[in-house]
Design a protein that fits this description.
This protein is an alpha/beta fold and 426 residues long. It folds into two domains: 29-50 and 299-425, Aspartate Aminotransferase, domain 1 (Alpha-Beta Complex); 67-296, Type I PLP-dependent aspartate aminotransferase-like (Major domain) (Aspartate Aminotransferase, domain 2), CATH 3.40.640. The chain is built from 18 helices and twelve strands. Strand 3 (123-127), helix 7 and strand 4 (144-148) form a beta-alpha-beta unit. The longest helix has 26 residues, at 400-425.
C-alpha cells in the first residue's frame, strides 16, 4: 500500500468518526440557502444582501478610475499602495486610534497580534470564550497564558491577584499582563463587563502594567459614533490599548484591522509572519472595506443600526412573551445563556444562542430549514461539549413578520420535542 492510500484511509477514518458523532461539517449548497430567510449569516446590517455594499463599492471604482485588479507584492515591499496607506489613516481616525494595520482576515490579525506583541516574561490573561484565532496566536507566542471563567469578574480578580503574587516581575511592574477579551462573544452573544474588568486591573496592578485588548468582530459597525464600535461607544479608546476590528460581519466584506500605537504597528510589520510572508490586499478587497465604512458613516448606516436594534429587541420581546416559552424553558428543551440581559437598556448583540439538549441542534436547524428559515447548528468543538446550539443572527432587513414566523417554528419544534420526551418517560 502506498503512502497516498495510507494517508487517505487515516483521513477518511477521522471524517467517519466525526460523521458518526453527527459533527461532520458540510457547507450548505448556496442555491439552498438562497431560497431561505436569512437568520444565519453575519451580514447583520444587511449591507451585502441588500445591494447597498455593491452600490457603494461601485462608487469607489468611479472615484479611483486608475485602479488595478490584483496585488503586486507583500506589505514590506511594493504591496503597501497609496490607497492602502490612506485607508489605514482613515480607519485610525474613524475609530479614534493612533494607527491602523490592515490584515487579510480577522484570523490573521489575531494570530499576528498574539504571536508577536506579548514578550518573554509577559502574561496573557484571557476570557474562556475568546476566538479560536486568539488561542492559535497565543500558542505561537512567547508569553505565558492564563484563562479566567467567561465574563466572571471574581475569577478574573483571583487569576490576576495570583499572577501578581507569584511573579515579582509583574508585582514590581517590569513586565506586562495582556487581557484578551471580545466585545460581544461570538457564541453566547453576551457583552464583556469591560468597566468592571478595567477597575479590577487598576486596583490589582497599581503600577498600571496591563494592556487590554478587545476583539470587536461582532460590534464593529453596530454601535458607537458612526458604528465605530464597542470601545468607542464607551469612550474607552485611551484605556484599551489594542483593538481588532473585522470586516466580515456587519461590514459584509472581509479583512481586519489592528488599532494600536505606532510602535506596535511597526513591530507587527517587522515581526508578524502573516504580514511579511503574505501578499498585500488588492484594491478590490480594500475598496469593498472602504465602501462599507462609508455606509456606516452615512444616514443609511444610522438607519440600519436603529433597525437592527429594533429587530433584536422585537425578537427578545416576542420570544420571551410567547405562550409556550415558560413550559419549554422549564423542560430545558431550549436554554438561552444571555437571556438575563435581554431586558436591559444596553445596545444588544444580534446573536441569539438557542442551546439544545446534546446532539439535537441539527434537528432544530433542520426543522427551521424545512420551514425556509436559515440558521446554523453549532456543535463541539466549536462550542464546549454539552452546549450544542442553533445560533441565530438577527439582521437589519429582517421583517417583523419573519421574526414572528421563525419564533413560531422554533416553539413548534420545542413543543414537539417536549411531548416526545414526556411519552418516553411513560
Amino acid at each position: 500500500m502506498d503512502g497516498k492510500k495510507i494517508l487517505s484511509q487515516k483521513l477518511q477514518s477521522a471524517l467517519d468518526e466525526r460523521d458518526r458523532d453527527n459533527r461532520l461539517i458540510s457547507p450548505p449548497d448556496p442555491s439552498t440557502v438562497a431560497q431561505m430567510v436569512d437568520f444565519g449569516s453575519n451580514d447583520t446590517l444587511s449591507l451585502a444582501t441588500s445591494g447597498a455594499l455593491t452600490r457603494s463599492f461601485e462608487d469607489q471604482l468611479r472615484k479611483n478610475p486608475d485602479f488595478i485588479v490584483g496585488s503586486t507584492s507583500t506589505r514590506i515591499f511594493e504591496g503597501t499602495t497609496q490607497y492602502l496607506k490612506e485607508l489605514e489613516v482613515y480607519m485610525a481616525q474613524f475609530h479614534n486610534a493612533e494607527s491602523a494595520l490592515f490584515f487579510n482576515s480577522g484570523f490573521d490579525a489575531n494570530v499576528a497580534l498574539w504571536s508577536t506583541i506579548p514578550q518573554n516574561g509577559d502574561f496573557v490573561l484571557y476570557d474562556q470564550y475568546v476566538h479560536a484565532s486568539i488561542h492559535d496566536g497565543m500558542r505561537r507566542g512567547r508569553a505565558k497564558t492564563i484563562m479566567f471563567a467567561h465574563n466572571d469578574c471574581a475569577s478574573f480578580r483571583h487569576c490576576l491577584e495570583s499572577l501578581r503574587d507569584q511573579n515579582p516581575v509583574i508585582a514590581d511592574g517590569r513586565n506586562v499582563v495582556f487581557v484578551a477579551l471580545e466585545s460581544f462573544y461570538s457564541m453566547d452573544g453576551d457583552e464583556t463587563p469591560i468597566h468592571e474588568l478595567l477597575g479590577i486591573a487598576k486596583t490589582t496592578l497599581s503600577r498600571g502594567n496591563f494592556i487590554f485588548s478587545v476583539d470587536e468582530a461582532h460590534s464593529n459597525g453596530l454601535l458607537g459614533p458612526n458604528g465605530s464600535g464597542f470601545v468607542s461607544h464607551y469612550g474607552l479608546e485611551k484605556e484599551v490599548g489594542l483593538r481588532v476590528h473585522t470586516f466580515g460581519k456587519a461590514l459584509g466584506s472581509n479583512g481586519a484591522v489592528i488599532l494600536a500605537e505606532l510602535t506596535i504597528k511597526f513591530n507587527l510589520i517587522n515581526y508578524a509572519r502573516s504580514v511579511i510572508f503574505s501578499t498585500a490586499p488588492s484594491f478590490v478587497a480594500l475598496a469593498a472595506v472602504k465602501a462599507g465604512y462609508e455606509i456606516l458613516a452615512s444616514e443609511d448606516g444610522e438607519r440600519r443600526r436603529r433597525a437592527l436594534q429594533e429587530n433584536i429587541r422585537y425578537f427578545h420581546k416576542t420570544f420571551l412573551s410567547h405562550p409556550k416559552w415558560a413550559a419549554i424553558k422549564k423542560e430545558e428543551i431550549i436554554q438561552i445563556p444571555n437571556e438575563k440581559n435581554w431586558n436591559s437598556e444596553i445596545l444588544q448583540s444580534p446573536i441569539i444562542p438557542l442551546v439544545t439538549p446534546p446532539n439535537e441542534s441539527t434537528e432544530l436547524a433542520g426543522h427551521m430549514h424545512r420551514a425556509k428559515f436559515w440558521a446554523n447548528p453549532v456543535r463541539y468543538p466549536i462550542v464546549p461539549k454539552g452546549m450544542d446550539r442553533v445560533r441565530i443572527s438577527i439582521h437589519a432587513d429582517n421583517t417583523k413578520e419573519q421574526i414572528e414566523d421563525v419564533i413560531e417554528v422554533i416553539m413548534e419544534w420545542a413543543t414537539s420535542r417536549a411531548e416526545r420526551a414526556r411519552k418516553g418517560r411513560l
